[in-house]
Design brief:
Length: about 210
């Protein structure tokens, strides 16, 4: 089973992808994570993308399609979850070609629908455990008072350089200009399935499970 999680920054794509990895042995392909890895490893490509990412812009199609192509050559396990990819129509076309070449199909595109107002609140104040990736939020889910991750006991927490109000504005603009047309694109292909991204995490998960079992 191969699926795309589609939605604006802060919609909860990464959170739901983690659940699917745990429960269905799927492989999460997050271009955001791949790009953050590239920049922290200090490669030439990493340096180029760092500046674009911090400002909230989109990295070139060529770079992200190249990253995805590499990962698709590896293990398949329970299938792929595309998280944060595709983000442009060119990326969507490239993905269709890549999957066709592998003899694989796209089974569903799950759109996590979240009101614009909620996104800013969710993202500004967000941090993650440096060890296990558990997501925290200053207001809604603070890091435990003992400074230890509730999930793994880790004591290092990271904040993304682009999780500030200024970069977020650009990220939202990029989303509405370049990524949201994909909703119509996949609707027309009959692949689009909608989920209420504002519901509680467990309810969002339930809705996704229902889609995947059909
Ligand atoms: P979010 O969905 O919360 O904005 P991501 O981790 O998916 O976060 O992406 C972070 C940044 O990485 C984006 O703002 C963009 O600069 C870059 N990026 C990630 N995926 C893509 C992609 N498919 N195409 C272009 N740029 C991307
Ligand atoms: Zn942790």
């Amino acid at each position: 089973m191969n699926i795309i999680l589609l939605g604006p920054p802060g919609a909860g794509k990464g959170t739901q992808a983690r659940v699917l990895v745990d429960e269905r042995d799927m492989i999460q392909l997050s271009t955001g994570d791949m790009l953050r890895e590239a920049r922290s490893s200090g490669t030439e490509m990493g340096k180029v993308v760092a500046e674009v990412m911090d400002k909230g812009g989109l990295v070139t199609d060529e770079i992200v399609i190249g990253l995805i192509r590499e990962k698709l050559e590896g293990e398949k396990k329970g299938g792929f979850i595309f998280d944060g990819f595709p983000r442009t129509l060119a990326q969507a076309d490239a993905l269709a070609d890549l999957l066709a070449d592998m003899g694989e199909a796209l089974d569903a595109v799950v759109e996590l629908q979240v009101e614009e107002e909620a996104l800013v609140a969710r993202i500004v104040g967000r941090s993650t455990c440096g060890n296990c990736g558990e997501v925290y939020h200053d207001v809604t889910k603070p890091i435990p008072a003992d400074g230890k991750c509730a999930n793994c006991g880790g004591t290092e927490f990271k904040r993304r350089a682009d999780d500030n109000e200024e970069s977020l504005k650009t990220r939202l603009m990029e989303y509405y200009k370049k990524t949201s047309p994909l909703i119509g694109y996949y609707y027309a292909k009959d692949d689009l399935r909608r989920v209420d991204g504002l519901a509680e995490m467990s309810e969002v998960k339930r809705q996704i499970d229902e889609i995947l079992s059909n």
